[in-house]
Specification:
1 helix, alpha+beta, about 45 residues, about 15% helix
């Protein structure tokens, strides 16, 4: 990943979390930058 420990594949593949966990329907992902703002996205399962 581009951010240390910011990639679920790296975290789950390295057994940092055992059992592994992934993003799921309804989870909110936020990316914020000081003095600039934040982006918030809620995951929604399709299909």
């Amino acid at each position: 990943g581009t951010v240390g420990t910011g990639c679920f594949l790296e975290l789950n593949g390295s057994k940092v979390y055992d059992p592994a966990w992934w993003l799921k329907d309804g989870d909110v992902v936020e990316c914020s930058i000081e003095r600039l703002g934040a982006l918030n996205n809620t995951l929604k399962k399709v299909g």
